[in-house]
Amino acid sequence: MEPLPSSSPLPRVCVTGGGGFIASWLVKLLLSRGYAVHATVRDPCDPKNAFLKQLDGAQENLRLFKANMLDYDTLTAPFAGCEGVFHVASPVPEGKLVDPEASASSILLLGKTCLTVTDLVPHTTVQKEMMTPTIEGTRNVLKACSAMNVKKFIQVSSVAAAVYNPGWPQGKVRDESSWSDKEFCRENEIWYALAKTEAEEIALEYGKKNGLQVISLCPGVVFGPLLQHMVLNTTSKVLVYIIKGGPDTMTNKSWPIVDVRDVADALLLLYNKAGSSERYLCSLDLLDMKDLLEILKNMYPNYSYADKIVDADYRIEMTSHRLKNLGWKPRKLEETLAHSVESYEEAGFLQVSEPCRLPFLFLVPTVQE
């Protein structure tokens, strides 16, 4: 599609991976706040992206662009005329990624939406499915921002880029100064954390060298209602598994939970208030799996629920005070859970008869530091 006319008085921004879980809520928020929005998707004509065109204000102020983060030439058109870019597109693995040299395609690149992986991913999958899309995709987006005179770059990273840090003082609450140790992640095959850490470091360093205002947000496990009802994203599959139950065993580790709408609010808040080369942790509640189960059972007693849980001596405390001091006001956990379950019910995901499986990242015990 063509960009909005240059005479448009609305502030113009681009959201990569616009059809994804977080990105779609950000698009919705931006439209409601009077922004003209460009959103990149794999295929603007794909039925799974039709919901974006039905958002309030979309007909007048949303344009979808076909783009691939690994193809630089597809990025300049959607970035044209934009003051800022929200880089949300990134893969989240469902299957086990065994080695960092890769060539397979079971994970969709854009919007943190994944296909089902039923077996362990072959030996040569990590680079193409995780490292290259995350790292080289970020480099391409940064380069295109400079080429199109974009002023602000807001990156969605992850708390995974902050928690795998064996040198962090024991008992000290993690804040934005905590970075995951890349060598530790590589040795322990924590490829998602390695990719997110590397991409975030690249972006912040690029901003300093090239005059681009770069800000990163590190969300925890993102729950909340769905705007896209055709495909279930990875973190929502985790909550669906908890509710429906299944054959997999979960570890009773602590999870940093945040509402998808609060992530969108945080991104817009950073766009308007944060300084350059800053990062922010974004999580409301840190809950053990058993505590989360009890809350859900009290709210919705008629579901089966996961019953295979083993205790794990693993708990990481972190703080989002920096984001709250900027004005972030997250929702209560019960509201997030209620709206999540209602959304899954409406979309029919809780009525599907196929066995429910847990994404790999949430299945295996977390590495002990």
TrEMBL record:
Pfam family, one: Epimerase
Molecular function, one GO term: oxidoreductase activity, acting on the CH-OH group of donors, NAD or NADP as acceptor
Chain segments annotated as transmembrane: none
Alphabetical list of Gene3D superfamilies matching this protein: NAD(P)-binding Rossmann-like Domain (3.40.50.720)
Keywords: Oxidoreductase
SUPFAM superfamilies assigned to the protein according to its UniProt record, in alphabetical order: NAD(P)-binding Rossmann-fold domains
InterPro entries found in the cross-reference section: Epimerase_deHydtase, NAD(P)-bd_dom_sf, NAD(P)_dehydrat-like
Domain NAD-dependent epimerase/dehydratase: 13-92, 129-279
PANTHER family associated with the record: NAD DEPENDENT EPIMERASE/DEHYDRATASE, OS09G0491852 PROTEIN
Name of the protein this chain belongs to: NAD-dependent epimerase/dehydratase domain-containing protein
